[in-house]
Amino acid sequence: MQTFLRCGFLAPLLLAGQTAFARAPDWPRLIGGTRTECSQAMTLAKLAFHSREYFVFDLHTIPDRFPSKVLLQSANEGDEVVADSSAFDELDSTPPFPRKLYWGKRLIDGYRLALMVRGHPWREDRYELYVADSAAPPAAVLRNWQSPPDAQVRSIVADAAVTPRIYRTGTQQGVWALSFGNSEEPLDSWKIWVPAADTLREACSIQFHPAGKRTVYLLPHPVRELEHLLDQTMGSGRYDGSLHSTALLRQAAAHTWGNAALRPWAVASRRGVYNTRKQIDAALDKWATERPGNRQLLTAIRRQYPLAERALDLYYQQRFGLVPALAHRAAAYVLDLAYREHYTFSRHDAESHSDAEAKADAAANPWPSH
Q1: Are 271 and 301 contained in the same domain?
Q2: Which domain holds residue 302?
Q3: Where is this region: Disordered (predicted)?
């Protein structure tokens, strides 16, 4: 199949289909707003986008001489919040919900900021950013997750899976916030919030990919076709229960495809792919015997895989200017990892995929320093 692609008429068509995207402006893009907070957030977005972090919202590095100071953000790893004690009081609440409140010490134009951390019985914490009237007590915010909401507080960012970040510019009153959209959506947009009368208002946003388009659709058609076939093997997940394991696998795969399209230097498994390629291939062989349609689908996947790998190879040459040998290695690495992100099979009957091997997966990306 690969010989046919190199010698036949399909390779020029693949390249032709990529030309328009290859010439598109670089990402990220600032949408609206000329305020200094927007340009500062854009500096952070570029740094995050070009980093090797799997998620752009995971980068915590601040450039030298950055004009704003971080007052509140998530810890470098995990869900814990780190807040400047001179700016926020950390208050515990009565369990089970919510579990913590970060209460702004200073007023901003007559109101204060408050971040509520809301626990959940089976999923990650959720974060709510509020502005509270000057006379409002902390209890008013803690009540606000219930219905009806308290009139003394106003929600700015609701039900966020990623902690919003709060910054202070050179002045004591110059506070602004950065929120990260839906963490389940690959490379979702950021929003920048600045002080206004009685609240924070959205000043601008930052996009990391074309609006309204799944990031996998930015990849060449043979790669998209492989992704579609792989997704069909996963099932609906209807009977997964509260763990939602199939949905979580789909999310992991979607993030990897998004990075494959726009940030291939950052493609790695954040959680560590559970199975080796050998284990997955053996499990799929067994799965294929369970019903006729399974065998047909697996045959289609194995027929499509080399077509997708060659298309991705050409895409990396055209879009990112990699030399052919490096593009070939990068395509092989990215596609293998994306393939394995779709599955978690029992390892009891096969060789173990150790934590060390999982870390090696993450470190093996052949993309040059970016």
Answers
A1: yes
A2: 2-21+212-363
A3: 350-370
Residue written as token pair 């080399």? 306
Q: Are residues 238 and 202 in the same domain?
A: no
* Pair 181, 245 in one domain: no
Let me know if 348 is exposed, middle or buried by CB neighbors in 10 A (0-12, 13-18, 19+). Answer: exposed
What residues contact 268, with CB distance under 8 A and at least 6 apart?
A: 52, 54, 337, 361, 362, 363, 365
**32 phi-psi bin (left φ>0, alpha ψ -120 to 50, beta other):** left
> Which run of H or of E encompasses 131?
strand 126-133
Complete DSSP assignment for 248-271: HHHHHHHHHHHHHHH-GGG-S-SS
Residue 99 and residue 245: Cα distance in Å, rounded? Answer: 26
Query: d(Cα 45, Cα 26) in Å, to the nearest integer?
Result: 12
State pLDDT tens for residues 183-199.
Answer: 889 999 999 999 988 88
Q: How confident is the model at residue 38 (pLDDT cuts 50, 70, 90)?
A: very high
pLDDT at 227: 96
Same domain, residue pair 16 and 56: no
- Residues 207/187, Cβ–Cβ less than 8 Å: no
Residue 109 makes CB contacts below 8 A (sequence gap 6+) with 173, 195, 196, 197, 198
Give residue-wise pLDDT tens across range 296-330. 999 999 999 999 999 999 999 999 999 999 999 99
